[in-house]
Request: fold
Amino acid sequence: MSVLQHLPPGRFIEAAGRGSRQTKHTVQVSFIVMLLMATMALFSANVNADVPNAVPPEGEYSGIHVEQPIEFPHDIHADVNEINCMYCHTYARRSKVAGIPPTSKCMGCHSIIATDKPRIQKLTEYWENKESPKWKKVHDVPDFVHFTHEKHIKRFVIDNEDLQVENVSEVCAFCHGEVKKMTVADKVKPLTMGFCQRCHQANDGPSDCWHCHK
Amino acid sequence: MSLSNLIDDWSRYRKGREEGGFHDYEHMWGMSIDLNKCIGCNACSVACYAENNLAVVGKEKFEKGQGMHWLRLERYWDEPDLGEERTTEFQQHGASFLPMMCQQCNAATCEPVCPVAATYHTPDGLNAQVYNRCIGSRYCSNNCPYRLRYFNFWSYYEDSWPAPLQMQLNPDISVRDKGVMEKCTFCVQRIRTVKDTARMEDRKVRDGEVQTACSQTCPTGAIEFGDMLGMYDPETGVAETKVTRMWRKHQVEFGKTKQNKQTPDMRGYRVFEFLNTDPCVMYLDRVREV
Ligand code: SF4
Ligand code: SF4
Reply:
């Protein structure tokens, strides 16, 4: 690796040092994870057992929590009710951006389900006013980066015969973290050039500058 | 990363030269420009401005040589001197035009002089410029025999696109800031999109699928663009691409500093071929009655 490689920006280090999100629990978990990874590295080259034929990228980030107009619970949808990520983020496998579902998609279920909950009532209000909630962007790559969801989904999900499509959230978690354990999604991966590049190296992705820089 | 890329590119190029081919490239984009067809309308240049977020710098800066036209129309006169009895500003006849964009040289003179490897050769045979890496030393521009690299002397975005003109900016290419070098990319964003689509459909890129903005716009079809690796294959019966056909017809070959022409009908040439830059743009000489 050359010295010319871009190093992560300062705020990344600052965020790691602040440690507001680091509880005793996380320390314990990370210790166990480290142990596990060490054992796995001993027995197989494939570090993540959940996604076959892939080496997940490494790196953590702790950013600023983004408030959303409605506190959307990803955990209830993706974890408890096991709804596939690609059911709502339907453009991920079809285009560059994963997309936010239209309010009509929410109303497809929520005109019947859980209509007594305050968050759903807020949503219904938006729907009746013919407005859409102004969701804020959490995972944003700089404007000079060309990133397409569809090619990543193709490589890790569609062309990956050993992966059950039900487990697609494990692939999403490469860059988005365990969103199914969160309510509103937070950015937990750095999404820096080094983060992308290390994964591209481990998974034989392209390393040509013009593949991603535009 | 980039340093190893750079070294790889050069060894690939050398290997290609020694073994008489460039075949471990994935693609090799090339052009053929017929000067017989070019009417000097400048539409290609305008298209390039629109496609690639080129700044309009204004007359004053343009006169200082700070124009950002990736594609410029060079104008030549049969009789450059109007003589003593000049009655008009320009000659009435005898103009010829030469659209000049980055020649995407295989042995690019700009690449080895960049101190930070911001310009390098891609596996597509393109001469790339990475804006984020560029530190604005301008060595590349000084080493380009064609003078086809343009430097951002100012933050043009501040006044080049007054509202609501910023809405017409192409999102597939960044708006460059002051201090970086830029040049024709062979519309790499279009190439990228077509390659992505082809990959999603599990097929190869078809001939004519990638169209650069200039070749799309040219009203007379003077500019042809395509993959130079599309050779005729007798086994599979795959036809050669349009551009390869033109190059073969006019007997212009890569890796040569002087072309062997059998007949004068073969009009093809590359600009400054003798410098051994091995460019990917071929021009077809203009024929006219004198
Ligand atoms: S190929 Fe694209 S970037 Fe190059 S001169 Fe033509 S329009 Fe401009
Ligand atoms: S658009 Fe075509 S005819 Fe017009 S100047 Fe450009 S190359 Fe020549």
